Amino acid sequence: MAKFLLLSGLIPVIIAFLARKFLSDGPMRKFGDEEVSLSGRELVARVLEKGGARNVEVIEKKRPFLKVGPERLLLSPALANSKRAREVAEAGILAGLVLMARKQEKVVQWRAWALKFGSAFPAFTIIAMVFALVVGRLGAGYVFGIVSASLGLSTVLLWLTLPVERTASGIVAEMVEETAIVTRRSEGEKLGTLIRALGWRRIIPGAIAWLAGK
Prior knowledge:
Layout: H1 2-31, H2 40-50, E1 57-60, E2 68-69, E3 72-75, H3 77-81, H4 85-134, H5 140-178, H6 185-198
Parallel strand pairs: 1-3
Antiparallel strand pairs: 2-3
Helix pairs in contact: 1-5, 1-6, 2-4, 4-5, 4-6, 5-6
């Protein structure tokens, strides 16, 4: 049973790491650190205006956790002020999620819940299993198996809700590539590539995402 739990968790996690490596890491390395002519705040404003969402309240707050809705977006000051291409692209995806929430609020909320679950549930499981191991309630094999299974479950939920973020990234990428919201065409193409790549980024539970790098 312990081996089954271990494998059932490891398989989806390994697939997620490979998918992120091949679908996201390349554009991040190539364009992510370049400077662009507009900030994250400016891109958000332009995407919302282009999408007809002029009444959205954009609030800058440290460490917001995907707080988006049809009329509200929480944006970290780091993303808002940055002109680093990767961070501008991240801000753009958040604006895309707002546009989606105006039509499909429940699916965007489901994605936000899955991201929270992916961060909290494995971390809670690890703490509980360490305690169980210390007091001798479970053997090491079962402890590793249960932790692995919790990571696998979180990964599957992230996969199931990934189309929400992929759709939002596609909306914004098309905007920056095909319209004049980014005045320099070369920048629009780079940002479009980064935005699509970032749509694959959050497929690893937050509890272990640091293993894959930023």
